[in-house]
Amino acid sequence: MSRYTVFIIQHDDQPPLQQPAPNWPSCYPILYHDIEAEFTDENAKRLLRRSYFLCKLYIAMLIAHSCADIAIAISAMNVLNILAELIGSAIYLILLPIGDFFGRHLSLYVAFKHNNETGFRYYFIGEAIIILFGLVISTGFIFSGLKLFHLFRVRFYIPGIFIIIFIILAIMQTVLHIILTIQVYRVFKSRNYTLFPSVNTGPRGRRLN
């Protein structure tokens, strides 16, 4: 009767997890961003969806502002102003949305993903900048509203319409950012986080390591 020897080879080391491929932005992916796949907590997903929506709304607001400035320059038939507005619009349409996504939204993304207190703090800084920007725009419109009416008086209808769209988007975005900030802050406080890092000090105010 034949006998067989069976060797059992046991591998203790688990194969490394494969990192997901970058998928954002779709035109030239440089990082992985998938709210639905990376998060299971429904509240976190809901807040992140709103944050990402505000990134898109911010781009729409900037486009409306650029169209208004370019339309005014075209209506005035000033070639230098047209070129300046085109270059300026191209610059801030790239830099500002990138800053908003990486500085504000991605901070919140990382904060929820890794339960990172510092990520929440960076998010609040980004929100403060966006909200302040919206308040300045809204206040400026109140004090310079006559300028908008002047555009319609001189029949600059297209620039006037774009400015109205821009102001509506700016006000709407500011309100939505304030609401989102309050909702995120409730989560932040529920985890016993603080806005400012605590520093342990000794009897003479010296920091204890």
TrEMBL record:
<keyword id="KW-0812">Transmembrane</keyword>
<feature type="transmembrane region" description="Helical">
    <location>
        <begin position="82"/>
        <end position="102"/>
    </location>
</feature>
<keyword id="KW-1133">Transmembrane helix</keyword>
<dbReference type="Pfam" id="PF04144">
    <property type="entry name" value="SCAMP"/>
</dbReference>
<feature type="transmembrane region" description="Helical">
    <location>
        <begin position="53"/>
        <end position="76"/>
    </location>
</feature>
<dbReference type="GO" id="GO:0055038">
    <property type="term" value="C:recycling endosome membrane"/>
</dbReference>
<feature type="transmembrane region" description="Helical">
    <location>
        <begin position="156"/>
        <end position="182"/>
    </location>
</feature>
<dbReference type="InterPro" id="IPR007273">
    <property type="entry name" value="SCAMP"/>
</dbReference>
<feature type="transmembrane region" description="Helical">
    <location>
        <begin position="122"/>
        <end position="144"/>
    </location>
</feature>
<dbReference type="GO" id="GO:0032588">
    <property type="term" value="C:trans-Golgi network membrane"/>
</dbReference>
<keyword id="KW-0472">Membrane</keyword>
<dbReference type="GO" id="GO:0015031">
    <property type="term" value="P:protein transport"/>
</dbReference>
<protein>
    <submittedName>
        <fullName>Uncharacterized protein</fullName>
    </submittedName>
</protein>
